[in-house]
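Student: Hello, beginner here. Can you help me understand the protein record under this note? Any guidance would be welcome.
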Amino acid sequence: MLEQIPNIKFLEENNFFLIAGPCAIEGNEMAFEIAEKVSDICNRLRIPYIFKGSYKKANRSRLDSFTGIGDLKALTILNEVRKHLGIPVTTDVHTEEEATIAGKYVDIIQIPAFLCRQTDLLVAAAKTDKVINIKKGQFLSPKAMQFAIDKVIQSGNEKVLLTERGTTFGYQDLVVDFRGIPEMQSLGVKVVLDCTHSLQQPNQNSGVTGGKPDLIETIAKAGIAVGVDGLFIETHPAPSTAKSDGANMLPLDKLEGLLEKVLKIRRSIV
């Protein structure tokens, strides 16, 4: 299925693939800085790379939280990254209308975890004929994701990925049950591990989500060791100043070292 993603490179290397970029598109310069840096790293390491950036942030704790720079402006930036760097791009959507619009600008449509059971949204995404990456709900078992897959496939689109992003643990924490990776792979799809959102600390009293970015490398290593197909990592040149989810993003200058380490694990198990 990965070979159906336009402009994806290095699939013949049998490495994991990487979905990486900022949480939200903050502007043209920032998007290209991250995309160019990660693309250069992945070209050197021969890792298939997909640039990620949310054009719109809908699931925010507070009304005054950053939601985006404008839908069309951000989608245009994603499309420019795709065209000028020759790499596939992805973004998340929240409604049927958004799926239809975003499908004109990106190669992969991401379904947020909280919305993974929304039938109309999955059907609308499927009808774009793009690859659909469904994030596993924090409230669902791995096996229950079969029904989300079925909704897309039965709508005429067999290009489905699943992403593990942790399971709700109490009110303010998430845990990753690594047994879920082979369980979801048994459903016949490629599985991605979201190494950054899995370390979120939601529902903080401040209304701003926290995180544990110092454990990103630990999560990534463990995921590769159990055979995950892809890694999802949100990264930013200065996470402390990022407009969304800075508390759990990986500093951009640490990405190359992390990827070099997990590549060694990957090569030792294949």
